[in-house]
Amino acid sequence: MAFTWQVLAFQIVNGVVWAMFLGLIALGLNAIFGLLGLLNMAHGAVYAIGAVIAWYMVHQLGSFWMAAIVAPAIAAAVSIPIYKLVLRPTIGKDMMIGLVATSGLLFIINDTLLALYGGSPGLVQPPIAGGVRFLGIIYPTYRLVAAALAAAILIAFWLFLKSTAMGLWIRCVAQSPTLAMASGVPVERVYLIIVVLSAALAALAGVLVAPMTTVSHQMGLSILGPAFIVVVVGGLGSLGGAVAAAILMGIARGVLSIYLPPTYAEVGAIALFLPLLLLRPNGIFGARS
To answer: What dihedral do alpha carbons 148, 153, 155, 156 form, nearest 10°?
Structure first.
């Protein structure tokens, strides 16, 4: 790809847009690891569920925006028995137990999607056509709308944490579950709510991304690595750090893709974070204990 200022501007905007969706996914990973102490390998599969539901809703019912309601609702409902049967028994145990349990869940969800959806990638047409001209480029309108919606959800979640009683409980449990329980905080309910919210946000991210990529039963695997990197670099427990890390990764990947194939550009973007981790091993905002 030849370098021009328009190409650079497009890739930077594209990187920021993708960062909003990556932030939604990383938010759930961050919350589950920070509160439950689990590396949820199945989180990417929930993202794939959202995209597959969007494909079905568009092709069977002709309604994309309905999928933005149905997919998070289904993911939230399914996450309740998954928490009680799979995640809850692993809390407080060796981290490898949770890793194995969620990895098994990942394979189960992927194989279920393969059986129901098939192995051939599908396409979802953007519900909003056209483009917006700014910075000397024409950028797809739908991507800007979807990114704005994702950003609004991230802001709403931050306000939820800062301004509600449940948000206070979540922050207390993140600091010390034992002290929170002694203070009367319903720790079990907090765990369940954070799992439900994380699943709903991941599924919503899958819906929003579906018109921007190819939909497949394994698409959650490709997003899992960058999401984990964003969580680590941003700092566990830091929503702002996760979003900042996602924006940095998105812009780096976009700029590198001017000169490199997409796969190498993503590897290069991840490699650029290594010096940052050496300088700030606790993440951008130093939120890890």
So the answer is: 140
Q: Do 62 and 69 meet the contact criterion of CB atoms below 8 Å apart?
A: no
**Domains of the chain, start order:** 5-279 (1.10.3470)
For 218, the 3-state DSSP assignment is: coil
Question: Model-level pTM?
Answer: 0.89
Length of the chain counted residue by residue: 289
DSSP string, 229-281: HHHHHH-TT-HHHHHHHHHHHHHHHHHHTTTS-HHHHHHHHHHTHHHHHHH-T
What does the pLDDT look like over 199-233, one tens digit per residue?
999 999 999 999 999 999 999 988 888 888 888 88
For 56-93, what is each residue's pLDDT tens digit? Answer: 999 988 889 999 999 999 999 999 999 999 999 998 88
